[in-house]
UniProtKB/TrEMBL annotation:
Zinc as UniProt keyword: no
Gene this chain is encoded by: prmC
Species lineage: Bacteria, Pseudomonadati, Candidatus Kryptoniota, Candidatus Chryseopegocella
Keywords on record: Methyltransferase, S-adenosyl-L-methionine, Transferase
Protein name: Release factor glutamine methyltransferase
Domain Release factor glutamine methyltransferase N-terminal: 12-87
């Protein structure tokens, strides 16, 4: 990519697509990931929508714009996730600010949100206000999506051990104009947490750190070298958060309610065993887009 040549938007799209393909750089699981990557980089630099790239495809780029594009391409070549480079991502059709302090939201987590919305609408139709606890809130994507799509029907508390994650979540709440959420820095495993939130919630939802420490090393560079390990793994077998949630769920739920959790591709039977051992009888699983059991829904009833 030389600066002596006049580079138009369409030239950068075509060159960038082939360049990223040749380097094995992907953005997502779609067939056109290389083109998507260069398009999103261009949109970021030019502050425009993707459709605008093709409306004004013959527009020449300035020297400064080319320099910025080259800088972003170099970062992506080092396997830095595109979402961190752009500082944002989309989840449930909403925009979320991202920093390396928070996990990048995944499409499969939208299933967790959708099933939570379904559960609230079905099981709490007669209740004016449903209180939700989001454990390991990260960027706030789950809590904010629930707040946005359910409105005044819900009040959500999002907790995370990371103060920096809470800062990002608060910024995202403002960005998406939701006020029925509150984000707090808390350690799920502390006695203080269990006491503070006793009998407070109808729904517990969580996308916890569920990758085992052994498996972390097998993950792609974008994940293991850039995303926060504290949000990826529990430092053990990947099941500690499920054990903790199963132990405290009855204490946190007000009268009757539900726990919905996301899990890894190979954990459904282990998650079933953990919650069954803790005394829960009604456990349902939902599959993701690849047919993998990805979300568990556990009914909580107090005797």
């Amino acid at each position: 990519m030389t600066e002596t040549k006049i580079w138009r938007i369409i030239d950068i799209i075509n060159w960038g697509t082939e360049f990223f393909k040749s380097k094995g750089i992907t953005h997502n699981s779609n067939g056109n990931e290389a083109r998507t990557t260069i398009e999103l980089i261009l949109c970021h630099v030019l502050k425009c929508r993707r459709i605008d790239l093709y409306i004004d495809f013959e527009r020449p780029l300035s020297k400064n714009e080319l320099e910025e594009i080259k800088t972003l391409i170099k970062r992506r070549l080092k396997r830095e996730p595109l979402q961190y480079i752009l500082g944002k991502t989309e989840f449930m059709g909403l925009e979320f600010k991202l920093t390396p302090d928070v996990l990048i939201p995944r499409p499969e987590t939208e299933i967790l949100v959708e099933k939570t919305i379904e559960t609230i609408k079905k099981e709490f139709a007669q209740k004016n206000l449903v209180k939700v606890l989001d454990i390991g809130t990260g960027s706030g994507n789950i809590a904010i999506s629930l707040a946005k799509f359910l409105g005044e029907k819900v009040y959500i508390v999002g907790i995370d051990i990371s103060e920096k994650a809470i800062e990002v979540a608060n910024e995202n709440a403002k960005l998406n104009k939701v006020e029925n959420v509150k984000f707090l820095a808390f350690d799920l495993f502390s006695d203080e947490f269990n006491e503070k939130f006793k009998n407070q919630f109808d729904i517990i939802v969580s996308n916890p750190p569920y990758i085992s420490i052994e498996e972390v090393q097998t993950l792609q560079d974008e994940i293991k070298n850039y995303e926060p390990w504290i949000a990826i793994t529990d430092g053990a077998d990947g099941l500690n958060f499920f054990r903790r949630i199963s132990n405290i769920a009855k204490n946190l739920i007000f009268e009757r309610g539900f726990v919905l959790v996301e899990m890894a591709y190979n954990q459904s039977e282990k998650v079933r065993e953990i919650f069954t051992k803790a005394g829960f009888k009604e456990i349902e699983f939902f599959k993701d887009y690849l047919g993998i059991e990805r979300v568990a829904k556990i009914k909580v009833e107090k005797l």
